[in-house]
Amino acid sequence: MESRLTELEIRFTEQEAAIESLSDTVHRQEQELEMMRLMVEQLKERIKSLANTPLAAQSEEAPPPHY
């Protein structure tokens, strides 16, 4: 009976450690996702600002004079 209880305690301890490790991993991934979301928003804003430049699209540009 005592050996069975000891085995259960060992399993419980191992499961606790595994759950804590998984929890840490999920937390780290959430932080990385949030950082990526912010980066995507910044890139969107940069793209918008570049789209508003006075330069014409390459297809709309007149060919250089030597053509």
TrEMBL record:
Source organism superkingdom: Bacteria
Keywords associated with the record: Coiled coil
Coiled coil (UniProt feature): 5-53
Official protein name in the record: SlyX family protein
Gene source species: Candidatus Reidiella endopervernicosa
Database matches in InterPro entries: SlyX
